[in-house]
Amino acid sequence: MSNENIMEIIKESIVKVDKDTAAQAVENALKEGFGPVEIIEKGLSPGMQKVGDLFERGELFLPQVMMAANLMTGVVNSLQEKMPEGQSAEKQSVVVIGTVEGDVHDIGKNIVKILLSVNGFEVHDVGRDALLTSFVEKAKEVGANIVASSALMTGTMEGQRELETLLRDAGIRDRVKTMVGGAPATEYWAEKIGADAYAENASEAVSKARELTAAK
Ligand code: HCB
After folding, report:
1. Is 154 in the pocket of ligand 1 (CB under 6 A)?
2. Which of 8, 54, 151, 204 is in the most buried spot, having the most CB atoms within 10 Å?
């Protein structure tokens, strides 16, 4: 089976919410030498992307999106234990992560959290639909080096801007770096709201987090 083929099968298994095929294809991919992160980024995530596109075109409905999301969450969780521990140099770096108020999308946030954790960051998750003040409170409580926020909707991404203000008002903005992500976020958005970094995916979130803490 070619590399593209196996990722295509994983992708389609998410779209079709085919649990058995997903489990089998992931197992095959691992046997073929694909890493868990590669499987998430090249198979599962494009699958969810396609689910989103079909939903937008009215070809899939919310219950199907929910089932696909549940399947993806289950597969990501099963892959978590197979992830190699990364460099532990960042052990002292503390990250507060969450999905902003009004937004329940947390699959991407959870992947970022897992990848940061296996790469040695101490991660505190304030959850999804998290009050913006809870990011600030948690950051103060744990002495965070980075506050990473996720937003999946154009309406809720404003929360990422507000978070900058709240961190400033709390007097800790100069002590923490901020990172934004989620489908509608961009490099331009990060610059516009004064965030320190934007990450397109979980691997990039890890490298950006490393850069941010190296520069602290
Ligand atoms: Co949802 N939904 N949804 N949804 N949903 C989106 C986001 C739309 C784009 C779909 C569409 O219309 N095309 C749309 C938003 C439109 C907009 O505002 N532009 C939308 C909508 C409208 C809604 C509801 C309002 C639908 C309704 O009820 N009528 C509702 C929202 C309710 C609410 O939040 N208040 C809703 C609900 C749902 C669920 C519950 C069915 C389910 C979420 C389940 C869950 O997360 N536990 C869901 C899903 C699954 C999606 C899509 C299909 C996939 C999102 C996803 O998981 N992607 C999404 C379509 C899309 O995004 N194209 C659709 C896969 C992950 C891996 O990607 O981008 O989240 P990611 O994360 C990446 C990356 O961004 C980065 O790393 C991650 C890993 O690589 N990253 C970070 C993420 N966070 C980061 C933070 C950092 O600091 C750094 C990097």
Report:
1. yes
2. 151
